[in-house]
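Rotation project, supervised by the postdoc (A.L.). Task for the rotation student: set up a whole-complex structure prediction and record inputs and outputs verbatim in this book. Inputs entered:
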Amino acid sequence: MRTVRRAGDGGLLVETAGLDDAHRLHRALRAAAFPGVTDIVPGERTVLLVAEPDVCDLDRLASRVAALEAGAAEAEDAPPVEIPVRYDGEDLGEVAELAGLSVREVVERHAAAEYSVAYLGFSPGFGYLTGLDAALRVPRRASPRTSVPTGSVAIAGSYTAVYPSPSPGGWRLLGRTDLTMWDVRRDPPSLLRPGLRVRFVPERSR
Amino acid sequence: MIEVVRPGPLATVQDLGRPGYAHLGVPRSGAADAPSLRLANRLVGNPEGAAGIEFTLGGAVLRFRSPAWISVTGAPLDVRLDGRPHGMNAPVHVPEGGVLHLGAPTRGLRSYLAVRGGLTCEKTLGSRSTDLLSRLGPPPLAPGTRLTFGGTDAPMAVDHAPVPVLPDAPVLRVVPGPRDDWFAPDALSVLTSAPYTVTPTGNRVGVRLEGPALVRAREGELASEGMVTGALQVPPNGNPILFLTDHPTTGGYPVLAVVRTHDLPLAAQLRPGVTVRFRLS
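Outputs recorded:
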């Protein structure tokens, strides 16, 4: 049985064994389509269910969720999304210095890994991608930029991400993509979704 | 058509928001005090989820280029149409060319205006709400903004709706958790024993509170997890932030307790400088 915590009178926070389990449970909960549930939000080691308390008996929902078999849910089977990148970011040199690598090695390592969308947050369509080469784990900038342009490919800590819209940001910029990560007129509006696999492809080598 | 002469400190278009997109990083948004918007809509015969205007600390002037039925609800303020006072929580007919003045609320923070037929600006992801965190929906109202509204044949059945007076000393009921185990054993009793002051830096994302520090028992960072409206998220300084409707969908600070859904409208009416108490329930 899973640990299910209360997040108020309209939310349940379900503990998972880790990220893969969170994604499996996320898919299983979407498939289960429990009535009264308006949002299902995976985190790094949790899945949050947001329900309408006037419509939904939270105790009953909690016991159904605790007993849900997510182990059998299929793994994400969509092919990886390929994101073409011009590796000309402002922070490439600084990252290379921090990592003790050459700029070329930074680019090679960033483009060699296969990533997975851990969860989205910060801004619409902003996916936190896991799978970053351990050598590229550098802290955020000491002072964030007031505006990071759309399509910026960046790293911070154990994550890499693409800024889907212009916003302030403290991540280190490695490059840019022209791919549209977020478009409210598209269905779904976000190119990324939790659990999706992602690869970065250097533009010159395409 | 409504022309904004003056929007006051902050005025936005709001309906009941855009649920269902939180896993893509999109806050629910929508009227912070949803029951007040619902009431305003009922008073003019609209569906409860029609788009209206959310005013923050009133202070607005609107010119009606076409006749309309309107209602004003939420934080109590002086409503004047062409200089004549009108009551809140009741439908008011505005003639073509009518100018509506909203004063400053005597208590509370957010007032709502519904117009019969509902505002008809473009929807984004199924909602007309302005989300200030994500910059979705129409921009905040500015002098010169023009707002169109629709029509309806639905009857206007209510003349006046009695509403409870906003309390001088609001008490919000909270449910412990989900991360109360990250805090010192007395954190919940600290939270519920002393008043917290509302700081001036709050917005639709959250209310920042100052009071006795809520001390953590655990070091380190919480793995980012989904956040709910009403969450009392506690950053390392120990002062809680009460998440309102434009709150980020995920966060990495532990949540000590969550305000009950039925008390969220009260939370949305907390104005800077007032004190608020929390009670376990």
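Student's summary: Chain A touches chain B through 39 residues (CB under 8 Å).
Supervisor addendum: The longest strand of chain A covers residues 37-42.
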